[in-house]
Amino acid sequence: MSDTQEPAPGELLAHGRAADVYALDDRRVLRRYRQCAPFQTEREAKLIEHVRTHGFPTPAVHDVSSTDLVLDRVAGRTMVEEMTRRPWTIGAQVRVLAGLHELLHRIPAPDWLDHAPIGPGDSVVHLDLHPLNVILTPTEPVVIDWTNAGRGPAGADVALTWLLMRTGVPDDNVVLRVAAAVGGRYTARRFARAADPSGETLRGHLAAATRYRLADPNLRDDERAAILRLAPRSA
After folding, report:
1. What CA–CA distances, in Å, run from 154 to 62, 122, 196, 198, 205?
2. For 189-230, what is each residue's pLDDT tens digit?
3. How far apart are CA 227 and CA 164, in angstroms?
4. Beta bridge mates, 69
């Protein structure tokens, strides 16, 4: 672990609710958290290395400080961008997303990982594995943003992704929010068919996913309202 942060970062590539991502050069990016729990970045870096050693596609970590991660820079569109540009590929993309869940959940949680925010379980769970966090490179899809990852039940990770797609609201303009509301319902249905054909996973884990999501301090008011409207029908 480095004791000092990187020098002043370069171009802002992404602005998230908890962190910003900057270009350092053509091979590396800097992910800088605005607020960090103690040892959060170290745990995240260690877990990224764990899933990478098990063959899961995610950027390598080059350096860590108390608020920063320096990672491989990944070239490609996000899965959301691909779905928006080519909506006829949504079915294929959600099958890829379901496959990434299945691949990740085969990886056993390491003994040192006691971070289980969505409940007890033995799988590595990402807890933010939705189309905005998948980058489509020329060779394979790559999963980013392991801020929330930990150990837990695989089914809860699937249920949470469905809930995020069904009720998530972009931080952009009103037109995008309306498009997300309509497209999110359709995409969530397609994902459920691919990841949970029997419906048993959603029925068994949606309550835990809902509790986890409602506890998120970065949740928007309109997202909270959407979850609460959905909860009686999905209970």
Report:
1. 28, 8, 12, 15, 9
2. 999 999 999 999 999 999 999 999 999 988 989 899 999 988
3. 9
4. 31, 64
Question: Mapping DSSP to helix (H, G, I), strand (E, B) and coil, where does residue 177 land?
Answer: helix
DSSP string over 199-229: SHHHHHHHHHHHHHHHT-TT--HHHHHHHHH
CATH number of the CATH domain containing 28: 3.30.200
Using CA atoms, how far apart are residues 102 and 197, in angstroms rounded to an integer?
13
Give the span between the Cα atoms of 41 and 49, in whole angstroms.
Answer: 12
Q: How far apart are CA 9 and CA 6, in angstroms?
A: 7
**Total domains in the fold of the chain:** 2
Backbone φ and ψ of 68, nearest 5°:
-125, 150
**Quick check: helix, strand or coil at residue 46?**
helix
* Distance separating alpha carbons of residues 74 and 58, to the nearest angstrom: 9
pLDDT in tens, 83-114: 989 999 999 999 999 999 999 999 999 999 99
pTM here?
0.89
CA dihedral defined by 214, 131, 165, 121, rounded to 10 degrees?
-50
Instruction: List phi, psi (to 5°) of 171.
Output: -90, 15
CB 59 within 8 A of CB 13: no
Report H helices in 86-197: 90-105, 154-167, 174-195
Do 124 and 224 belong to one domain?
Answer: yes
Does 2 reside within a domain?
no
